[in-house]
Design goal:
The chain is α+β, with helices and mostly antiparallel strands. A 4-stranded antiparallel beta sheet has the order 1-4-3-2. The protein contains 2 helices and 4 strands. The relative contact order is 0.26. It has helices at residues 4-20, 95-105, and strands at 27-38, 47-58, 61-71, 81-94. A hairpin with a 2-residue loop joins strand 2 (47-58) and strand 3. The chain has one domain (4-105): Roll (Thiol Ester Dehydrase, Chain A). The chain is 26% helix and 46% strand.
Length: 107
Amino acid sequence: MLATPRLLALAEASAATAVSQALAPGMTSVGTSAMIEHNKASPVGVTVSAEAELTKVEGSRLEFRFLAWHVRPGAADADREIVAVGTMERAVVNRERFVSRANLSTT
């Protein structure tokens, strides 16, 4: 079975990838909040995928909605089963400054 935190991580990666090419050099996005409805278990052996759609940009704040699904072995991609839906927010930040501040907060 695929745990909800792992499913959320897959959705977060999808959102980060969706905007990464549009960000200025030296910038990245970081997750700030998420809401997930994990409605169906994904049995061992299925392929789980996620896609995120950017729905709103407000300054440095990005809002997404996402969808995750699995396809059972031997089934066609058209037979995908939705396993989770949700929304998330990410913030665009300067990568170097973010890492520097994160390192300072651990000391």
